[in-house]
Protein 1
Amino acid sequence: MSMVTDSLTTGIQPTVADLEAHRSVALSLTLLLLGWLVGVVLVVATVWQLQEDEALQELAQEAKVMADSVSSHLQQYRGIADAVSDLRTLREVLGAPTPDGLGKLNRFLQQTNRSLGSDTLFVLNPAGIVVGASNYASKNSFVGHDFAFRPYFQQAVLGESAGYYAVGLISQGRGYYFSAPILDDGKVLGVAVVKILLEPVFERLAARQHDFLLIGYDSVIFAASNQDWQLRSLNRLPESQRVAIRQSHRYGNSSLAPMATSPESDQNLFDDAYIQLVSGGVIQRYLVGRALVREAGWHLFAVMPRMELLRRTLQFSIYFSLVYGLLVLFWLYWRKRSEVQRHVNSMNLELERRVAGLTSELTESNAELKQLVAHYQRTQSELETTQNQLIQTAKLAVLGELSAGINHELNQPLLALQTYAENSQKLLARERFTLVADNLREILQITGSMHAIVSRFKVFARRSPPDPRPVDVNEIINAALMIMKPLLKKAGVGIEVELPPSGQMILCEPVQIQQVLINLLTNASEAMEGVVDASVQVRVEDGDDQIRILVIDNGPGIAKELQSTIFEPFFTTKRKGLGIGLALSRRILETLSGSLTAESGVNGGTVFVMTLRKHRGVDE
């Protein structure tokens, strides 16, 4: 029961821990969100006031620059009307007007206007009728038009210079008019007027950073960067004032629609930081900076949409949010890093504990492994010793089979030695020393041949460790054939040898290769027992990187299903034998990176193929 309770408690604990972790995360996120909201509110409250003050200063400076630009433009033409009115040509023509004189006046005004760079230069008689104009030749000529209702004429005909702005009745262009009386002995003969076109000035103002309004003393917007604002009144105008403005034709046929929709929405144009303007059919609030164009009595407003102020404030809020986010990310990183560090420390302690346990186990395993390695080394040494003993046994077995041939090979030289020795005794008794010397030379030659035969068998039978070295393949084959020729001759087996030119080197222990060849030749001889015209052929094929030694017999051959089995240890088809000769032969060649295979001959019999790598020199 206790074990079950412990198991249930263990299963519940991770769930409770997970719930606590989720609560902690939720609380942290809530606090972070509240901190961000409080920060944004503080930033908006602080930045809004700062941005508003900065924008007001910016707009005031912009309005002053615009007003100065307008004033500078007007100042260029301020004294021109007075100078023109004082010209003698105008007094002469107006004193006694004639068709020729008026024509001369028109041409004079045209030339003068062109040199001054003004829009139009014209002259009115005391009744307000234009009698001469610089545009007399155009279709919009002022000549003959009555401008007596214009204030600039009314003031000039009273003997005072005047300035006036209005929308032209004929050109419909907004212009500024400078007028001056033409006097002769104190009598007003007429009025000279210079019209300046203001459209280029307004286009330059509209290209600046902020929107602008050019407002007259009657609260009518004479010019603005927004087409929706032009020739409208900022506040609702009394009907009497609207009638008076229309009668002056100052603003052409404009309706003078008010920005304000009711008397309650009228604005304090010259004190409030904000004014309301209609843009795109929607009333919006604009922050405003003001300046005065004193020469014309205009107020110039530079305005900024309140949305721009909001955008700037939100921009700072975004900056705050980014900084706040970076700080939160840094805090989260630090917190996560601390948790990871604690976890790593815990894991390190656990790892150290496990490493200590594993070290103990590895120490025991290492001791066992050393024992296994020592046992393997002993086994390997025993296997090598056994293999060497098998090779030696195989050699001795071959020597046993060759003993009859050796006996036959040595009997004839021994009989010859006996004959030469007996003959020498007889010749020595007769003191025929020259013939004795000849017999002794023959005896030495025969003993040399016997020594060569015996030495070949002695070298072959010697027990010695392998000592691979570069050897001419022809030398190995000839040495093996010298040993095998007596046996083959006794067995009645003919032999045919095809060797390449000398100099084809292989890296090997020559006695081991001789042993393989002797074993193959011995097997061939035994396989051809009872075969008529039995013969064996030893042929060497020279390849690019390999040398192939072929031992070919014309015996009955080996069945295909046995061609791979004959190389297995202790497999034999002979009545006597251990069945290890071919297995040892293949093993010897494989240790030299070579191979030994068996295949059927073209005309019957068996072909054993020895493949060995060529020796290229000391750098191989």
Protein 2
Amino acid sequence: MKTLFEEGKQLFDQEQYALALAKFAPLTSLDQSNDMVRYAAYFYAISAHKSGDNVTAKNMFLQVLRKYPNWDVTNDINYWLGFLAAERGDLSDTFSYLAKAETIDTKQKNAVKQKALLGEVDMGILKELLAEYPEDNLIASKLANGILALDVEDQDIDLLNELQSTYSLDLDLSIDGIESSPKKSTYNVGLFLPFAYSSDSARLVRSMTTWTTRMYQGVSLGVDKLKEEGIDLNLITIDTRNSETRLFEMIRSGELDDLDLIIGPVTQSAVQLITGFSKNKRINMVNPLSSNSDILTDNPFAFLYYPSNESLAIKAADYARVNFTRNKNVAVFYSGFADKARADLYKQIIEKDSFNVTIFQEVRENESAYIQTLLSEEHEQDKDSAVVANMIAEMDSLREAGEEDWEIYMPRDFVYDTLKILPDSIGHVFIASDFSSLASSALSGIESRPDTVEYLSSSRFLSTENSISFDQLERLNATFIGSNLIDYTTDEVSTFRELYVEKYLASPIKEDRLGDAYIGYDITVTFGRLLQQYGKYFQIGLKRKDVISGELTDKFNYKFSNDNRYTPVLKVKEGVVVPVEKH
């Protein structure tokens, strides 16, 4: 017996576990309680595990516990049984046996628990385990992460808050201090636009042709669409034109306190007033036109429908730094104060990466032709002095030879026409504006040049109504940073256009910068569904999803910011706008 044990132990120490099993096996069947027999059984169980036979290992460990309940290796055996349970995915046994292994180091036991908790675990089992082991942070953390992995509408926010508080878990549960998001049968939505309502019939007729009216029509169609889906919005329109005093009075009186969502406003004074109101009353507002991130400053309830200037500049610069390295000279054009933040940040980022912004210029919309002129204008330049000297010498020789027609070169022959912005002196043009006139001018200027100049801008002006040829965009390999691009081939857009024509006996018009029916409809349907799905504070859903789908536009991303950061890089291929990188 002693010889067998010593041979088995030697093989065990040499990690020859299969051979050790053969030596220990006869000893495990002896009906004795001496140390040699006990340890033979203990080492046999470990050898079985090391040889890949966990069933035999488990059975032998259990046999040892039954035969020698008071042996001082009981804690080790319970640890081994917990370890084997973790390997076979038995959470209940894992935690049960490890709880009995009282003298085993906590870190060592936690490593086994973490192994057992890897992968997908049934939420019901986790809740039962936590009830049985209420002090175990690992179970609590796994349960919290499992809840967070669910769709937001299925998440038990109260349980998440309880887990975070009780177990000091590092979970980002609250959204700007919002702990609950009430759901209602009807949501009050305020549309704040400068309508300029008037009893004057002539002004009323004129107002029916304005962008504000078209945007209202889109919002109204969106309300109708949602009603068909069982989502009820009570639309309230507020005219903000020249009415700051009236707006202030409405705020002061509490008349607007019952709003659940604000669309707009768009004029500067009204934006400042309503943004403060939105923050104080904790009412979400969506600015439908602006890319100015100042609207979001210090107000977690303010959202931009479009990407901010900063988001567009960052994405554009990141793309340019990687793809426009052949020639690092850059021309940047912007149109007025509203665009300057985009232009400034683009310049700042791109110049940190050895690019050189050689042209940085403001160009107003009504002066956009200047860009084309600047890129395509020619001027006279003297030919090389050696060439000129040879030409003069040639004429001198003819004159001296008595040739009557010796003056074979005219003054124009001594100069040549060249571009004012010399060929290959710039590598790409960035239009830091959403005005299509600036884009058209730049593209026409680039097309007239003999060199290759890349074009980059946001895609906001692209629409079925724009005058820019998709053939030209494809020919010039123009690049766009996606800004709520609408795919006009989708069923959703077709449905919208049919509804619009049927109700208003006209086709919707897509504007460059102002509001329009497309925007009104898209915002209303998209955010109306968010209200229905997540309640008044729909950011609870937005902040926990990478992207959400729009109704007319492709996607929105508000996970890390309150502006739409879904900004794919786009090009025109075979007459269709397509993404050139994954998002």
Protein 3
Amino acid sequence: MSRLLAALIILMASATSAAADFAFSNVQGPHGVGLTVSQMYDYSRVYKLRVDQITGAAIQGERARPMQVLRWYPTRRQGKPVTYRQYMETIATEENFTADAQAVRNATDTWLASQGAAPSHGALAKPMWAVRDAPALPGKYPVVIYAPSFSASAAENVDLCEYLASQGYVVLSSASLGARTRSMTIDLEGLEAQAADIAFLIATAQAMPQADMNRIAVVGFSWGGLANVLAAARDDRIGALVSLDGSLRGFPEFVNGGKDAAKYVTPARLAVPLLYVARRPDTLESLNQRQIDTSFSLMNQMKYSDVYIVTMHPMTHPDFSSIHLRFAPERAFEEYSRDEAALAHSWTARYVHQFLDAYLKNDTAARTFMNNSAAANKVPRHMLTLDVRRGDDTPPTLETFVRTLGKEGFARAIPTYDALHAKSEAFRLQDSQINTWGYQLLRGGRGKDAVEIFKLGIHVYPDNANLFDSLAEAQEKTGDRDQATRNYRRSLELNPKNGNAVERLKALGNTAGAQP
């Protein structure tokens, strides 16, 4: 049995109705919370294959990827809030956008029964904070995308999503669907499907007048706490990451650079602050029994990021889901109680809030909170431990390289490149990339800068005839005829068939055999 599926069985197992209700102990923030539920399609991706994967019948109707999006946002404190059951009813319409009210009720009752929750369970009638379709407050607010755990619904952690909206965030979530089926798959295709869902939600937020698209974070639980890493490696607009006991630890093979990994996930491309909130640690013996490889840790490799690792000792993996905390039997909490796990869950939400305030709102008090000891933050004793790692703010990336040249001048191209390459051998510009860049500068009227980029080219690729030819052309156009002649000749030495160099030498009053 896989590591992730074992955890999911614990999370989703049928159980008798819980004896006590989950209590989210955090106080609502200064804002009311609005909620919308939108059903749309991502027409850029096919979701359903030509035949039904269960019955084999030909598919009728829309085949694009269904995206039911839950959006929470700041509003005024007024109106009738939704109940917890109404959140649970959204699970029935994640794929089926045409279900009528009775079908939704029946499907919800069936789903609740699978959780051991009778329709009369007290948690279901409990009013939440959000008011459906409430008018949005004016102003701009940072955007948070919530990525659920493996195959889980967008309503998995509604308490956290409401809490963040009440603190001045726009929050969006959609269900964790596989690339082709409702069930997620434990492979790179499944991860990248959820990462693409995150990208779709970011694009959806763009249409919201409240959304500040210059401040974006992604919070993910379990599998979603690995998919968000892939999303951040592909989109540098994501300015902060939160991983709630994320699969960064359980599935390192997807991010360790190996044969099954997403090769674009590198420390340099993850120069983004990360908060990792972990369950209580496993013993070495337990890890060994489950054959979990501990030889690689992406978080240990993220040397260009500020990384906070908060370990919640009362919590097991399923306790990061408020659905689990509501409906799981008491025995699921092992030596701790439901109330202790729930309190730790609430403190998890506080740390998420403070982390986002620190990095998306640049809030000084929040940064102090994140750097405090647990005791200084008045966390109950023995609940959590904190490990803080400071990152180097100059990752070896093209963006860093270009930004440095923009500040210090293109004459610094070679030493700057060498310094970044020394940090990571993975930082290397291709010869065609350098050549194209130089000509873009040349055509833009920045001949001297183009010369410096072509000089970088022959520094990195000293036997590249084309780059010598390009350097000579840039020098010719900037009036340095002697250097142009030398470099046309060097290009000819490397490639005697370079007709352009022959023609340019003639134009400069030289022949191929003459010395400059």
Protein 4
Amino acid sequence: MDKVLFIIVLALGISTVLNLLLKKVGVSQIIGYIFTGTILAYSFGLQDSSQSNTLEHIGEFGIVFLMFTIGLEISLSKMNNMKKEIFGNGFMQATFTALAILSICFFIFNLDFVTSLIISTAFALSSTAVVLSYLKSSKEIYAPYGQRATGILIFQDIAVIPLLILLGFLTNDAEHSVWIIIKDTVISALIVVGILFFIGRKVVSWLLHFSASSEEDELFMGSVLFIVISASLLASYFGFTYSLGAFVAGMVIAETKYHHKVEYDIAPFKDILLGTFFIVVGMKINISYFLDNVALIIGIFILVLILKTLITFMVLKISTNSSTSLKTALSISQVGEFSFVIFAVASVGGLIDKELESLLLLIVIFSMLITPFFISHINHFVDSFIKDDYIALLDEKAFKTREGHIIVCGYSDIGKSVAEHLDEMKLPYVIIDNNPKNVQLALKQNKEAYLGDMSELAMIEALHTENCASVIVTLDNIDKKKAVCETIRQYTKDIHLIAKVVSQDEKNKLRGIDIDVIVDGKYEVGRILVDKMMVCQMRI
């Protein structure tokens, strides 16, 4: 135990010094953690020791808290809004990538089918830890490509669950049929989700409200940690990963009014534990084996990167512009951390041999080492040679000095009408819409329009919304409309917020938000009809 504590203290010291040095040259702290693990492994011989296993268990909770913060970003309403990105793009990307790699492993490298299946499913996954850490820190998560990358990563994280179940079936000596395993798994999943959502939601809301009302930060933080770990243990008890329970717990809290505070308070714990995970990754690096096979490792990595980029680009190009498609494809072209889990389970079950496992692990590690170096340059790389004529780049500096303008959120039929009336009154305005077709149409009509999502804080900050006179929300989707109004009011209360609704149900959903004017379309049409009738009578 004393040696473990000594190693942890040493890891903190080495990683701190390395990350301070690397930060000065703009290198991700992930690299510092991985190098720390390698230094410790070769200094104390920890590659296969019990201390390494202890640290690995600690590091696993880094992934747990990362999945929890992802859950905080994905409420049920937001998941419904992102169903195309998650269940459309995500499913196609993961499936087509796995099939392509399966074919290459089986037909070109002549591996057996089970080994090919394991490699293909593992390599189809991307690194949630690396990509989302960058997207969130750089606020690129709110950009169009960040939203699509997030949706695909969420699907991949969800897909890990059936993949691990599949491995369990493959390592099972046929004691049960696949249908029995699937049936038991579905029943267990329904129980876990049911407990966490239908029972846990009330308990979570009460606990957070009770701890927040105490005005003691440590009690609130303790309540959050209790919720995360309890949900993780519940999922584990039913045979799922800790990460699934944490992810669902995050989604439950996302439905409460405390999700912003929870996300802010949990960040230090998540970052430290995630750092431990990458230290353990660094401990798995076998330098001599890497040097002996460096050409093969780099060659396979480049092949996987090109293949995943091409497949993701083609999947997204169906519904998205070339620039966003390529940025998304490049951002998720690496192999992810859940591959470590898949290869470890497969190796223990005798599905792949140890030497092949070592090679695969080094490919994944090399992939995660390289990703932080190029992911921050994706925007510049893609924008330098792909120009989508309907995408206007938002110049944040220009909005710093702009004042008194109007922001029109949405350019559907109502948005077009609003713009026409503002033109007649010669009032300055800017249009924001998350639909590229609407932005393209507005630009063709010589209007100032930008592609963006006003429900995301980064877009509101980039527009310096506090300097505008009013925001007019003309969106049709009530969930998106509510999210936009809530985010604007969280950002500033000093501007006029006007929103249109089409039913009493929509008006009820917006209740509690400080909206200056809610315009009911049906009511206004009725009033105008009566006004017109009175005008006709006066003419008689």
